[in-house]
Amino acid sequence: MKKEFICIVCPNSCRITAEYNEQQIKHIEGAQCKKGEEFIKNEIKNPLRTFVGSVKCRNGDYQLVSVKTNKPIPKKYIKQVAQKTHELVVEAPVEIGQVIISDVLGQHADLVATRKVRKKVL
Amino acid sequence: MINKDVVIIGGGAAGLAAAVACRDKGIEDILIIERESALGGILKQCIHDGFGLIKFQHSYTGPEYAQKYVDQVEKQEIAYLLDSMVIDITSQKVLTVVNKSGLKKYKAKSIILAMGCRERTRGAIGIPGTRPTGIYTAGVAQNLINIHNYMIGKEVVILGSGDIGLIMARRLMLEGATIKMVLELLPYGSGLPRNFNQCLSDFDIPLYLNHTVVDIKGNKRVEAITMAEVDHNGKVILSTCQEVPCDTLLLSVGLIPENELSKMAGIQLDSLTGGALVDEYGQSTVKGIFACGNVLQVHDIVDNVSLEAEHIACGVEKYLSSFLKPKNDIAIEIGEGLRYVLPQRIQYLDDTVFSFRVKKPGKKKQIVFKNDNRIIKEKSFIRVNPAEMIRIKLTSSELSDIKHLKVELN
Amino acid sequence: MNKNTENQFDAIIVGAGVVGCSIARELSRFKVRIAVLEKESDVGWGSSCRNSGVIHAGFNNQPGTLMAKYCEEGNQLFHSIAQELDVLFKKTGKLVVAKNNSEIAGLKKLKKQGERNGVKNLDIIDEQEIRKLEPNVRGVAALLSPETAITSPYLYTIALAENALKNGVHFYLNTEVENIEKKSSGEFVLKTQNKQFITDYLINSTGVYCDKIARMAGIDRYRIYPCRGEYYVLDKNASSLMNHLIYPVPHIEEGGLGIHLTPTVDGNVLIGPSNEYIDTNKRNNYAVTMEVLSKLCKEAQKFLPAISPKYFIRNYAGIRSKQTPPSQGGYRDYVIEESEEVPNMINLIGIESPGLTAAYPIAKEVVAMIDKKEKLSTNPDFNPYRKGILRFEEQDEETKRKLVEQDPDYGEVICRCEQVTKREILQAIDNPLGARSLISIKYRSRAMMGRCQGGYCQTRIMELLKEKYNYKWDDFLLRGSESYMLTGNRSNGEPAL
């Protein structure tokens, strides 16, 4: 079968056409870079996405610390990770890159902070 | 009156990049004036990723991208004021700034305008109906959710397919809201294609092109909207009206460069970009006042804002050392198929980055730079899309003996 | 007159629009225990905040009518009341513009009518003179009325209410009258959802609902036909296009003054209103419509070709309480009367344009009606003065500098478009009437009224409410009860939604 994909790796948003069946990918066309081809291979077998969201932060100069998975995870787990972020509270201060949940849902990616949150000065 | 070499108005993506680049060029006496209580501008609330792929070959979130520049500002000890508003600015480059500690005046040798843009509102596009609560611009919703920890609605219709609207569709969905649909007046999407993929398709959110909102119902909170199809002239087809129950209408219907201070300074604006009319160094019609970022033109990605800011810093440095001497004055002619071209004029014939947007999507297109009938440069594109800003650099040798310059899409 | 129980009053005014608040304030000059009952969460949320904000000179109304009389009197009175109450008032003057020669006769008729009504300084000017006064306006001749002025209709209403409050009037917001009973003792018993009120005098100043309230008291002879008018609000950048109010020659049978251009005291421009009778059962239908919005711009361009959609920042609609049905159109004179069948109930019926101008003379008339029967004694403590919120933006630089020195909250600009400071917003939040909706803060401070419509400051104002007043998500209301702005917290650190 033949299908057109829009690559999400970068703003180029390449339209990539792939010809494939259940066993193998026969042909990929339209990617401007290697990452695009990699993206399509995953997109066919097991689509991956980076999760972004935020987690409640106590005693910080922000009420929320924004978070992301430091690697893309299978798309089907995105909603479950979102659910996790609702149930968490972290304590300020938080640094960018600080691990909030390691190996989230066993998907070999950590949920890490993407915002610096200082302790609130009272 | 406090004297400064460079005053930068706005500590967002453009202002921060301009400040760091100015310092890199050896300018010591810089002041950033920021109205919020933290540097970073709108990036602070853009917690999604995809920033920095051009500039850093890495996908960062908004707060991470901003922090990289904030760290530079701190490290290089560039002065900044927070919670400070510029309430007046003159063509003599005198700024009146107010904050908690008082009202102060600054006299700058050079000013960089980096105030960003604002969102187009319901009133501006004249959506009919009642005026209940539950109607938000996408950016306000983003701020309430990502900074203030509030939820703004449960059943959401989004009008406009700009990037913030698409990003917010995904965000609200993951926070438990139902996104009923995204409506787009135009026959094509306004956001980047990848956002249609990862924000709408991934979550089976329907997108209706050639559709708009023609009525809002509800006296207290939104109860429903009426959607309708539009014909190829953008006129509503009344027979297609359909009521959609919802409690929230999110608007992502465009951004407007925030040029009220520019007007105060007597700067001439370009009605096509909504920003200042500038030369190739981002210098406005008032000598010594430069502009970069979304206040100059609405950008698609922040990397281009940073690059633009770095480029105009070269101009500021030349201006301060009196090296900015016009060799010529050529107004750029906008040819077929383009909505605007920046800069609007070139005077120095140095290496120049032109940026522009096409009027409508197309396949297999060429951008052509011409001096009368002589082609100076040509670049081919598999696809062009109004959502994507195109940047093309012309070198000083390419520009060396031109008398006239026209850019067109073929 | 002397009532002491909490729910007993000498006089109750139903409806806190500009008329009700004028009556409350005028009546508070006397020793009278007064209450104002208002179904909305703030004063002035009906027609009083949904009009052109014009203090008319009085040439539009038929000589001999109450409309003509009160309009002319109201125009004369306004300057001193505005000063007492610290309300913005600008005598901009008005041009009624004839688009072609056939309309000039209409101008002459208006001038004559105005002069009979006692309006001063009316003049008919030619095309050249129009150009001199208004370079952007197109027309062959115009009636110039220098006495026509503008004010902020909602700030005026708020000012009247605040001054009344200060002089002892009790305000009950969110209090809708559901039933009226006239007891054999002569007292009225008013039932509302949570409370019962007793009063000797009952004043019905409920605007578009006046026939309904009269019916509750057993008077069935009034009929109101709600007639909507839609408006566009233009960016302050449009204010340089014109100096005067710009009106077409009215076609009286239409029952409105025609779509006109009005500068506001804040520097915006209004286009409107349209004229559409609406369903009498949906009197709160303040919707604007696609058809009318597109018409407004075209009509305005006939006089001022420079008007364009790029100036639009908001739209709204108001509703006229007309006594004439759609089939008849035109105007019927105000009814201000104590009905024979229900003594001590004063009904104010059909107070449509020029209601804002006429409100104060109407109030004086109502007070005179009560005074005639009761021989009211003067309230020696009556204080006619009220101070509004000082506007930082309008001060000169030296004053601004001093203000920030005195109070650092003046140094924090919250609304960038209108340059409204934290100090002003806190004053607006702490308003004496206790109205806490975002719209109440907006009307009082002008924050959120500019070209970005709160895009920048709304979240900051919400943060201020949270910090200072400990607002929870469900305390944020846009326009009174049930107008929840939020649906919850995103995360409490526990499952959301």
Task: List its traits.
heterotrimer; A: alpha+beta; CPE0013-like fold; 2 domains; three-stranded antiparallel sheet; 34% strand; elongated; C: 497 residues; alpha+beta; Arc Repressor Mutant, subunit A; globular
Task: Report on this structure.
The complex is a heterotrimer of chains A (122), B (410) and C (497). Chain A contains 2 helices and 10 strands. The model of chain A has no long low-confidence stretch (mean pLDDT 91). Helices cover 18% and strands 34% of the residues of chain A. Chain A is α+β, with helices and mostly antiparallel strands and 122 residues long. Chain A has a 5-stranded mixed sheet with strand order 8-5-6-10-9. Chain A has a 3-stranded antiparallel sheet with strand order 1-2-3, covered by helices on one side. The longest helix of chain A is centred in the N-terminal third of the chain and has 12 residues, at 34-45. Chain B has 3 domains: 1-119 and 254-324, FAD/NAD(P)-binding domain (3-Layer(bba) Sandwich); 121-253, FAD/NAD(P)-binding domain (3-Layer(bba) Sandwich); 326-410, Immunoglobulin-like. In chain B, the strands form 7 sheets. In chain B, strands 1, 2, 5, 6, 7, 8 and 20 form a 7-stranded mixed sheet that branches. In chain B, α5 (163-174) packs parallel to α6. In chain C, α1 (18-27) runs parallel beside α5. In chain C, the strands form 5 sheets. In chain C, strands 1, 2, 9, 10, 11, 12, 19 and 20 form an 8-stranded mixed sheet that branches. In chain C, strands 13, 15, 16, 17 and 18 form a 5-stranded antiparallel sheet that branches. A 4-stranded mixed sheet of chain C has the order 6-7-5-14. Chain C has helices at residues 18-27, 66-85, 104-116, 127-133, 153-166, 210-216, 290-303, 355-374, 397-406, 422-429, 438-445, 458-469; strands at residues 8-14, 34-37, 54-55, 89-90, 94-98, 123-126, 141-145, 149-151, 170-172, 177-182, 188-192, 196-204, 225-234, 245-248, 260-263, 269-272, 276-277, 312-322, 335-338, 345-349, 413-415, 420-421, 488-489. In chain C, a hairpin with a 5-residue loop joins β10 (177-182) and β11. Chains B and C meet through β6, β7, α3, α4 and β11 of B and β18, α9, α12 and β23 of C.
